[in-house]
Amino acid sequence: MTDHAEISRHATWTIARVRPLLERFTEKYVRIPESGCWIWIAGTDPKGYGFLYSHQHGKHRAAHRISLELHGVTVPDGSFVCHRCDVPSCVNPDHLFVGSPTDNVRDMIAKGRARLVKNGKGEACPRAVLSVSDVAIIKARLAAGHTLKNIGNDYGLHLSTIHHIKTGKSWADVPAAETLELAIARAAIAVGKGGV
Ligand SMILES: [Zn+2]
């Protein structure tokens, strides 16, 4: 078989498989109107992350990763897919994002800006659920004039979540630190005590 014939056969095979994967994916979740989450109702691992068999890859793959790929998002090798909504079984591509390499996440933790949560595949994402330390830092950053967008990007959170903190709709009981430096220092101490 020539190289060209091999490529052609592979292309035909891929096209033949892509449609069934999308069909199989689409029938395996239900949309929750209140949260916007698409909850996976087929196979999940013990932590709730959905899985779907990929004929193209010859193995089961994480449903949230497949979701992003099916919706046109490239997930580079070595990257991982994280949830903004902190619902492991959610496969709504709008609630997912491609995470930074783990080293960057560890760097964020060292600075007290994020905590790790394992997603069941030995991969780690910055956790969307905030700690008191996180909120204290966010409030200090807001006071220092950082934008909602910048803060949201750092934590992988929707702007609305940061806005709720700003307006006191959520986390009203967490006092703002006097300065951003103080908030970060306290967070680093909390991490050092096993607060990750
Ligand atoms: Zn969701």
Strand content: 5-15%
> How helix-rich are the residues, as a percent range?
40-55%
Overall pLDDT metric = 75
Instruction: Give, in order, the helices and strands.
Output: HEEEEHEEHEEHHHH
**Strand count, sense and closure of the main sheet?**
2 strands, antiparallel
Strands, count:
8
Structurally, the number of domains stands at 2
Low-confidence stretches: 118-123
The helix-and-strand class reads alpha+beta
The oligomerization state is single chain
Which fold name corresponds to the CATH topology of the largest domain?
Answer: Homing Intron 3 (I-Ppo) Encoded Endonuclease, Chain A
The unique ligands bound to this protein are: zinc ion
| End-to-end gap | 55 Å
The CATH class of the largest domain is identified as Alpha Beta
- The rounded Rg comes to 20 Å
Task: Enumerate the strands of the largest sheet in spatial order, edge to edge or round the barrel.
Answer: 1-2
Instruction: State the CATH architecture of the largest domain.
Output: Alpha-Beta Complex
SS field, number of helical segments: 7
What general form does the structure show? elongated
